[in-house]
UniProtKB/TrEMBL annotation:
Entry keyword set: NAD, Oxidoreductase
Gene3D superfamilies: NAD(P)-binding Rossmann-like Domain
Identification of the protein by name: Hydroxyacid dehydrogenase
EC numbers, comma separated: 1.1.1.-
Alphabetized PANTHER family for the sequence: D-ISOMER SPECIFIC 2-HYDROXYACID DEHYDROGENASE FAMILY PROTEIN (AFU_ORTHOLOGUE AFUA_6G10090)
Molecular-function GO terms, alphabetical: oxidoreductase activity
Domain D-isomer specific 2-hydroxyacid dehydrogenase catalytic as annotated: residue spans: 10-317
Length: 331
């Protein structure tokens, strides 16, 4: 019996994941992601696993009527046309939640670095400016107000570290009240509200934890920056496109807000001349919040095991469109 064939677009996050995938499938690797190439490469494949910046569009899906499964290499699904895959009855897999600790730690690190003026002190000390201890100020974090936009798995981990570890005052915005999240918030000591403007207006730090959807795309814009405290900071470890980057640049340049910590951009990688990168009050990292060694191992092996399960007709651990299970997976 032949092994199922899987198109792997770019490397996975950890070599162990690739090893697991090769044990259960014949893997064909490509490092190109232009749509015409993928439409050719996908022919004869049973599955696809990909990581950004590759995208699986309806054109790619239509190029292979026999496609059985599509999987992101990590957490997000915004680079896959999930709705069309669902329409075609194709399971779309990912590995949600496995990066929650790593990403939460990164968000907290950015908050601490901004509040403590860490990069400014570092840069000045490298230049021999010891007197920067007098000219640059930093803040105590205890008691400062943090606003979490979203209260999913990652935001909850952030809340634990900020509230219980740093004794900060944490409020989380949610689109609608749900008892389960209320219970978690009460256990941690987090306030839950549905008024996003109030969170932006009152917080010293805003940390974004919302998915990228048609509703959230570019939704964090000048309207929100204009009501933030001039001393407040924005942290984004979610998705770059939930923020209007031009509005953020202007807000930072004009002093509407004090600074920002950004791990994600739109597009990725960002242009080298992106104006945001030139600002001294912005800390930037290359979308590494959820890519620690530990997280990469778990994420990659989970993804590979899930793909093999589907190709064997079994139920995967994580699926982004569970409604296709009844028609496609029997056991």
């Amino acid at each position: 019996m032949r092994k199922p064939r899987v198109l792997q677009i770019f490397s996975m996050y950890h070599p162990e994941g690739e090893k697991v995938l090769r044990e259960g499938a014949e893997v064909i690797r490509t490092d190109r992601c232009d749509i015409p190439h993928l439409c050719e490469a996908v022919k004869g494949m049973d599955g696809i696993v990909l990581r950004a910046p590759a995208k699986i569009t309806r054109e790619v899906i239509d190029a292979n009527p026999g496609l059985k499964v599509i999987s992101g290499a990590g957490v997000g699904l915004d680079n896959i046309d999930v709705a069309y895959a669902t329409e075609k009855g194709i399971p779309v897999l990912h590995a949600p939640s496995v990066n929650k600790v790593s990403t939460a730690e990164h968000a907290v690190t950015l908050i601490m670095a901004l509040g403590k003026s860490l990069i400014s002190f570092h840069d000045n000390m490298k230049k021999g400016d010891y007197d920067s201890r007098i000219t640059i100020s930093s803040n105590e974090l205890k008691g400062k107000k943090v606003g979490l936009i979203g209260f999913g798995n990652i935001a909850q981990e952030v809340a634990k570290r900020l509230k219980l570890g740093l004794e900060m005052d944490v409020t989380a915005w949610v689109r609608e009240y749900k008892q389960e999240k209320h219970q978690i918030a009460n256990e941690i000591g987090v306030h839950i509200i549905t008024n996003m403007e109030e969170v932006f207006r009152e917080s010293d730090f805003i940390s974004l934890h919302i998915p990228l959807t048609e509703q959230t795309k570019y939704s964090i814009d000048r309207k929100f920056f204009s009501i933030m405290k001039p001393s407040a900071y924005l942290i984004n470890t979610a998705r770059g496109a939930v923020v209007n980057q031009e509005d953020l640049y202007n807000a930072l340049k004009d002093g509407l807000i004090a600074g920002a910590g950004l791990d994600v951009f739109d597009p990725e990688p960002p242009a080298k001349d992106l104006p945001l990168l030139s600002l001294s009050n912005v800390i930037v990292t290359p979308h590494v919040g959820g890519t620690t060694v530990e997280c990469n191992y778990i994420m990659s092996t989970t993804v590979s095991e899930n793909i093999i399960k589907v190709l064997e007709g079994k139920i995967p651990k994580y699926i982004g469109n569970p409604e296709v299970l009844k028609s496609k997976i029997t056991e």
